[in-house]
Amino acid sequence: MTTVLKSVADPSAEIALLQRQLERERRARRMAEEVGERSTSQLYETVQELRHAQGQLRQHLEDQQLVHQLSLDLRRDLDPQGIMRRAVTSVGAAVEADRCLVRFADGSGIGRIAEQWSAPDVPPVTSGTTLPPELARLSLAAADEHTTLLVDDVLADPRLSSEGAGQVVDALGALSYLGTPMRIGDRLIGWLVLHATTHAAPWSARQLAVVEGVADALGIALMQAETHAHQTEALERLRAVDQVKTEFVSTVSHELRTPVTSISGYAQLLLDPEVSELSEDQERMVSVVSRNADRLLNLIEDLLSLSRADAGDLSLPPGTVDLLAVLDDVRAGVVPLARRRGIDLVVDGDEHLPRIPGNPDALERVVFNLLSNALKFSADGSGVTVTLRQQDAGVVLTVRDTGIGIPEADLPLVFDRFHRSPLAVERAIQGTGLGLSVVRSTVELHGGNVSIDSRVGEGTEVRVWLPLDDGVDDGVDG
Predict the structure, then answer these.
(1) Residues 6+ apart with CB under 8 A from 455
(2) Is 63 left (phi over 0), alpha (psi -120 to 50) or beta?
(3) Closest-CA residue to 386 (of 329, 437, 347, 335)
(4) Cα gap 1→322, rounded to integer Å
(5) Any idea which of 353-362, 371-380, 434-443 has the lowest mean pLDDT?
(6) Helix (H, G, I), strand (E, B), or coil: what is residue 432?
(7) Given this model, what pLDDT does residue 131 score?
(8) Are 386 and 327 in contact (CB under 8 A)?
(9) Is 383:403 a contact under the CB 8 Å cutoff?
(10) Radius of gyration of the chain (CA)
(11) How far apart are CA 374 and CA 397, in angstroms?
(12) Are the CB atoms for 194 and 204 separated by under 8 Å?
């Protein structure tokens, strides 16, 4: 009987137990749902924050790329107006300002508007508009501190009086103002400025970063352009002076040639025993006159050759030149000097040498300068050898002497005008330092080249190559 009663009471206990378990499960489910909802909400917020941060990072990188690219573009340009136009247009559009402009510093004050850009439907500021006094004072103070002047709301900024704020609005139409100084070291060049004209609003960190980044590059670019302009102006002045000098040398040389030629000719006549009878002393004095007249004529011819080369007036006749005949003529002219000094002058030329295109007078000057230099720097009783050969689609003239030679350090300078070797100066060997310069100018104008090899105490070898074909620059055409 007892057992039966216990079994009947058990179902209620089981039901209560199940109810309690069910309630616990419901509470757990509700808690899980609440946690899930909170987690989902937090996850959504986190994703949104990440997307926002990603967007900001992307915008920051784009701004940095804009500043970097614009900086490169500005530094490649050398036109100041073009530099400023590119800067204000790019910055104004990129930061969505109503206006972007450049003002130059004017001594201790703020100067004119140098360049500006305005958004569509926004009128530009008149170029002669000056900055209102209170805003100018704030701009100069910020520039002294190397900082940007930020005025988020012109009408509400405590640094501006009501009158000063009104002047800003009336003069510029600006409700917000941003001005970044452009500096190179301690030098204030000007300001890169933004205006907001439709409504007042705080300037963003992005707008500030872009303007400050470009202002630095713009200042550097303007300084580079200014330096380039000064250098170009100085170069033009030097060219003008050089042109005057060239014309003067050419004119004077032409004017001197006639009387000096006359002096030389009459001196030669006086030395001719069939024309005049001179005493020994008189003959010696006339010989001195003749030698110095010849030296002066050679100097005049060198100056005229350089003047023609500088002006591009060297003409190449349509015909060709027999370089061996030119060499024979020059040799005949210098043989008396070689004999007086006991120098053995040996000329070895190919009789079947082809003719070359060129100016015979100019090439005669080249050969004369090379032979006279070789004789001048050779010791009495030594030897000078001249060879003329066809080689490498051209003709090679080689002049060798056994003279004093040229120091290695001076070899790169021997073709410079008026350069003279220290050994020549030390030994008082006469000369102007123009001969080899004339040689190089003339040879290069004929499309050839010249080289020199020398050793002190052993002698010098000069090698001239001239082309057989007519492959010369247009600058030598007459």
Answers:
(1) 405
(2) alpha
(3) 347
(4) 155
(5) 434-443
(6) coil
(7) 92
(8) yes
(9) no
(10) 45
(11) 13
(12) no
Please give the single-letter amino acid code of residue 341. Answer: R
> Which secondary-structure segment (H or E) carries 75?
helix 2-76
Side by side, the strands of the sheet bearing 176-184 are: 109-118, 99-106, 187-196, 176-184, 149-151
Q: What sign does the CA torsion over 369, 442, 309, 361 have?
A: positive
- Within 10 A of 221 (CB to CB), how many other CB atoms are there? 27
Point out which residues pair with 348 in neighbouring strands.
Answer: 387
Tokens of 80: 């100041």
Residue 1: in which H helix or E strand, if any? none
Backbone phi, psi, residue 194, to 5°: -115, 145
Amino acid at 191: W
Q: Find out whether 379 and 403 touch, Cβ atoms under 8 Å.
A: yes
Using DSSP bridges, classify how beta strands 344-349 and 383-391 pair: parallel, antiparallel or unpaired. Answer: parallel
Q: Give whichever of 38-47, 276-285, 381-390 has the largest mean pLDDT.
A: 381-390
Cα 442 from Cα 393, distance rounded (Å): 19
Residue 394 has pLDDT above 70, yes or no: yes
Q: 159-197, pLDDT tens digit by residue?
A: 999 999 999 999 999 999 999 998 887 888 889 999 999
Burial zone of 34 (CB within 10 Å; 0-12 exposed, 13-18 middle, 19+ buried): exposed
Q: Are 151 and 165 in contact (CB under 8 A)?
A: no
As a three-state string, the secondary structure of 141-172 is HHHHCCCCEEECCCCCCCCCCHHHHHHHHHHH
Place of tokens 């009459």: 266
CB of 174 closer than 8 Å to CB of 153: no
- Residue 44's contacts (CB-CB under 8 Å, 6 or more residues apart) are none
Tell me how many helices (H) and strands (E) the chain has. 10, 12
Q: Fill in the amino acid letter for 83.
A: I
Three-class DSSP category at 126 = coil
Cβ(354)–Cβ(313) below 8 Å = no
Terminal-to-terminal C-alpha distance of the chain: 147
CB 473 within 8 A of CB 385: no
Which residue, among 168, 163, 130, has the nearest Cα to 151 in the 3D structure? 168
Nearest of 420, 431, 435, 304 to residue 359 by alpha carbon: 304
Cβ contacts of 444 within 8 Å, gap of 6 or more: 450
Average pLDDT score over residue span 24-33:
74
